[in-house]
Design goal:
α3 links the parallel β3 and β4. The chain has 162 residues and is of the alpha+beta class. Helix content is 30%, strand content 24%.
Length: 162
């Protein structure tokens, strides 16, 4: 991804997640929107990957390195890379783009010699939950968190890399 594409990618992320706005509290939506547009994706070692079609970005994903504070609500990072902010343009869904972006992160983590890769998601993101479960990610309840005390639990998942 080119640095000048970053504002577009961040705006696209927010647009992709807007479908969840009515499913969570206003406080939760504001926190999520803030995360999607924050500069966390510029931290050292963080990589943003995009999928393009006909010269246009149709999806993106962020891979945080191991031991990085990927979430402002958690005091320390996991000892494995963390996938964040998977976003696929609504017109491009159901074509395997999200899965391809996740697979790219998995392959990157393997090449870097990691034994696991992780992520967090919530029940209201039903398609994401199904994707990650079908790809072999396993729940790690001890790493769940509730970012804004509204009853929405952001669930932790981890996948062994063989």
């Amino acid at each position: 991804m080119k640095h000048e594409e970053l504002p577009f990618v961040r705006n696209q992320r927010i647009g992709c997640y807007e479908e969840y706005q009515s499913l969570v509290s206003e406080e939760h939506w504001n926190a999520l929107k803030g995360t999607l547009s924050s500069e966390d994706d510029l931290k050292e070692g963080v990589n943003i990957y995009v999928m393009e079609e006909s010269g246009s970005i149709i999806g993106s994903i962020v891979l945080f390195p191991a031991n990085t504070e990927a979430y402002e609500w958690l005091e320390e990072g996991a000892d494995y890379p963390e996938i964040r902010m998977l976003a696929v343009d609504s017109a491009s869904r159901k074509k395997g783009i999200g899965k391809s972006l996740v697979l790219h992160c998995i392959e990157t983590a393997k090449k870097e010699g990691h034994s696991h890769i992780g992520l967090h998601t919530a029940d209201f993101m039903k398609n994401a939950m199904a994707l990650y479960t079908n790809m072999g990610f396993e729940r790690i309840p001890s790493q769940d968190f509730e970012p804004v005390n509204d009853g929405v639990i952001v669930k932790a998942f981890k996948k062994p890399l063989k």
